[in-house]
Write a structure and sequence with these properties.
CATH superfamily of the largest domain: Glutaredoxin
Order of helices and strands: HHEEEEEEHEEHHEHHHEEH
Largest sheet: 5 strands, mixed
Structural class: alpha+beta
Oligomer: single chain
CATH class of the largest domain: Alpha Beta
Number of strands: 11
Number of domains: 2
Length: about 270
Amino acid sequence: MLKNLGILMLICAAALGAQAARAAPTAPAAPAAPAEPAADAAKDPRIALLKRLPAGSKIEDLHTTPVAGLYEFAQGADVSYLTADGKYFLDGNLYDMDTRQNLSEAHRMTARAALINAVPESEMLIFSPKNPLYTITIFTDIDCPYCRKMHSEMAEMNKLGVRVRYLFFPRTGPDTESWKKAEAVWCSADRNAALTRAKAGAAVDVTKTCGSTPIASEYELGKSIGVRGTPAIVTENGGYISGYFPPKELVEEIKKLQPGKGQVAAN
């Protein structure tokens, strides 16, 4: 009898437990864990390449090229190339053989124009005709013989419609006589007149100071766009003309770099 009673009590307990389980509210299911992000198709090779480049290089300095596995490394207007595995470095020009276009120079031109356009004209010395057809920016050194010759022909350049914007590039570098002359010209009340006198060989009072000048920043700008000597001439679209040309020949050089620019000479 007791045995049967025990069995009956176990059956009742099991039934009550099942009923309670059915009556209890169902707990909400735990949210599914977010799916693991898919692995990148390929790790950006530029990250590894940075380790092979000079200190201070940025990932933005590296660009893909039309050549598979070849990256362009550009700082300012300095352009070179390296392979995606970082094993080979190329210092030279890349050409499209179908169009014969110098792809490296096209990039340099864009970079030069952007860098120079970032300089306010208030930091330049400008000699302009009334109605200019062309604008060029010249990195100049007061003591450079060919810079002096070019400046002596300013009236003819202006007559041909050429507007000249000067930036200083004393080739001998900081704390030299040419550098001090550039600063003295900048500190003059009439900078254009002072530059003309200095380029004509007049004595320059290098003790004249006026605090901060743009000479250092213009010198660094010149180096960043590849200036190695003066005069160094940059066209509006970033084209580069190295050295002295007589005014009429200079205009022809500008036209080669900016076809269709200018039609009638300004007087």
